[in-house]
Automatic annotation (TrEMBL), chain A:
Pfam families reported for this sequence: PP-binding
Top-level taxon: Bacteria
UniProt-listed Gene3D superfamilies: ACP-like
Protein's recorded name: Acyl carrier protein
InterPro entries: ACP-like_sf, PP-bd_ACP
Domain Carrier: 11-92
Parts of the chain that traverse the membrane: none
TrEMBL record, chain B:
Lineage: Bacteria, Pseudomonadati, Pseudomonadota, Alphaproteobacteria, Sphingomonadales
UniProt xrefs under SUPFAM superfamilies: alpha/beta-Hydrolases (SSF53474)
Protein name: Alpha/beta hydrolase
Organism name: Pacificimonas flava
Spans annotated as Disordered: 1-20
Amino acid sequence: MMSAAPSPQTPDVEPVVRTCLVDVLSLEPERVAAMDRSTPLFGALPELDSMAVAGLLTELEDRLDILIDDDEVDGDIFADLGSLIDFAADKAAA
Amino acid sequence: MSAPRLSLESAGPHRLPSLRQGPGDIPALIVVQPLYEEQNRCRRFLVQLGAALAAHGIPTTVPDLPRSGDSPDIGPFDLRVAKDALRRLADAEATPGILAMRGGALLAAPLARGQISIAPVWAGDRLLRDLVRSHAVAEKERTGAAFGMAEAQRTWREGGDLWLSGHPVSAAAAETLSASVSPCGEVLEAPELGLPPLWRQAEPVEAGEAAARAAERVARWLAEARGS
């Protein structure tokens, strides 16, 4: 799922997603700030293993007050930063 | 400030490897660690917190409850057994209170003692869901097969244990965990301490400043509880 254009909901959600990446993956804030929507995540960030994926989803649930069904989770969500932001924004808007 | 001391505490039939810090001549605050994999991830922070509390003159003991950490009692972790050990230890220590972190807050429910909790897990079913989710993501990556709570429940109904994040979880343990809620008492949430979610991080990060802030809050809480 490549996402060229940001969805309308992203302004509120994007900072939360970026903060979750910093907190859960122990990434430097500057590194996450330098990412753009096309920055690849899963397979490109060694910190993002399966345990981290689960933790990231749970933190997003807690911080955005959303519920993510495990059946919805696949690799496309974590393809790049834009796809993760869009997924979270769609859940937050639901 | 005294150095950390390792001891083997007796709590009825339970033998609990424990880490003590602070003065040794007064009852210690019992620190209840997070459960399952989160315990390993938060241990460094709890040692730092113990050192910071020792600087306030407050002794702590951090026990490895049965079937967790370095406990000689092996087997699937069981909240009921851990609660029994904690109750007996609290009585033997005449502890002034319980300091719990994350899922450790689920253990203190039957104790008629003061409790302060750091980033508590409010309901055990949430923690169980986290464990199953981690397993599900790993399974999907490893085999491509979907796995979820329905599959986990099926395994437990058939009498098997599930290995979730490296820990065996029996049907009885899952049921007890799922039904547990936390009394929590006084609550210190992570953001107010400037504490990152250590329990989700594979690599330990420095959280000494958050430990110092938590120690100040715990010391104040303890002083108020003692009426001083």
